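Training component of the fellowship. As part of building independent skills, the fellow (R.M.) carried out the full modelling exercise for a liganded target. The chosen ligand was flavin-adenine dinucleotide. The inputs are recorded below so that the supervisory panel can assess the work.
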Amino acid sequence: MTATMARTKISPAAIELLQSKLRGELVQPGESGYEEARKVYNALHDRFPAVIVQPADTADVVAAVSFARDQGLDLSIKSGAHNVAGFGTNDGGVIIDMSGMNSVSVDPANRVAQIGGGATWGDVDHATHVFGLATPGGILSTTGVAGLTLGGGFGYLTRRYGLCCDNVISAEVVTANGQIVTTSETENADLFWALRGGGGNFGVVTRFEFKLHPVSMVYGGPIFFPAEASARVLRLFRDFIATAPIEFSGFLGYHEAPPAPFVPEALHGHKACAIVVCYTGPMEDAEAAIRPIREAGPVALDLCGPIPYPALNSMFDALLPHGLNHYWKADFVRELSDEAIDIQARFGPEVPNFLSLMHLYPLDGAVQQVDKNATAFTYRDVEFTHIIAGIDMDAANMSARTAWVRDYWAALHPHSAGGAYINFLMDEGQDRIKTTYLENYPRLVETKRHWDPENLFHMNQNIRPD
Ligand SMILES: Cc1cc2nc3c(=O)[nH]c(=O)nc-3n(C[C@H](O)[C@H](O)[C@H](O)COP(=O)(O)OP(=O)(O)OC[C@H]3O[C@@H](n4cnc5c(N)ncnc54)[C@H](O)[C@@H]3O)c2cc1C
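Fellow's submitted model of the complex:
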């Protein structure tokens, strides 16, 4: 489809009526701002929606949802736009671009934040850090709170304070019939259960209420080892995590050392295995707590030390900007076996360029303290989740990047728990979605039937109501 084709689908009168209900912007093909507004983070998805609504408030969201429903159009919701499967955009339909609804207000006495449905983790860090508070977000500050949290969400504070969705106290949601509902453990509890892991299937979240925790300065950053040492480093990381203090969060990754200012030139282009640390315990205990990591192998570069949490949370933003091409595969890992480590050590050092990566995130600690049926996010009995991402500036290189990802993943998959984190999936079909929710899937279908029986919200890892 092209912008011209996208424009012809809807009557001008219907657009005019929608426009009259909005305080925010309505952008159509050919208008200034359209080219920017139609884009999502993953450049592989080059689509041409007919109408983009940039709501100023919840009433605007109601108008946009009702318009898409009444016109029978595909409806995409985007907040941080990071969804790599491309659900944040479409051809000929409607996008609700929530990014303008990004205000964050903090109640420091009660350690609670009200977070707009279009905020990024950078918006949250900015508002909470002045009070010496934070909540678990992702590992970049540019990712959206909504998409990440609705899929479960994990990052630097997860082993200590749980998944992002575990920190949601309540949410305001615009449902498929245009109702505005509040949902919490005590109000519309079925919807609250489903929102915590079930993705964007149930409505548009216009506001979250989040718990905050006393996190300000942390001891963190990456420690790089030569890729040749990676089997040893991986074994050490696995064993370290099994008994690591709850104050330790972080992850292990394979990378090619980027041409970044913080990397000495002599290391640019070298393959490395890195452990990125975030220690939130007392600063005076940090060095002793992470000593086993520093002793895991010959350290090539050590950038770990005291750092404000928002600085750690945004340290890698510039390395992964919007507009690159992404192909991802992922799995949950119940136990990291020696065989799986050997496979990692075979494929990881072949990471093809400085953008592509493998990351291994621990999912133990506070994540496992919540019952696996207490929220829609099911895989709480695994130790890790990995993601293999082929990333390139040039779409012409993507078949080679994709081949590396597929071969790597296929070798590891037999050692996995079966399902994959919903937010790391591409568009991989219904079976993969069911394998990810396991016994929670029927309850998700039931909840979908109640809140969205016509499947208006289907541009997502879809829970089908039928
Ligand atoms: C560079 C990068 C780093 C990442 N790091 C992490 C990480 O550290 N931890 C982690 O858990 N995940 C991580 N992810 C995965 C991330 O969780 C998903 O990409 C997620 O979909 C991003 O959310 P978003 O709001 O930015 O994306 P969007 O594309 O805006 O939204 C994704 C989906 O969420 C739904 N949605 C979005 N906003 C709303 C809303 N307001 N109401 C209802 N539904 C909505 C829609 O279905 C939409 O298709 C990362 C992704 C990228 C690209």
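The panel noted the following from the submitted structure. Residues 41, 77-84, 87-88, 98, 117, 138-140, 143-144, 146-148, 150-151, 153-155, 199-200, 204-205, 320, 423, 459-460 surround flavin-adenine dinucleotide (CB under 6 Å). Residues 107 and 113 are 6 Å apart (CA to CA).
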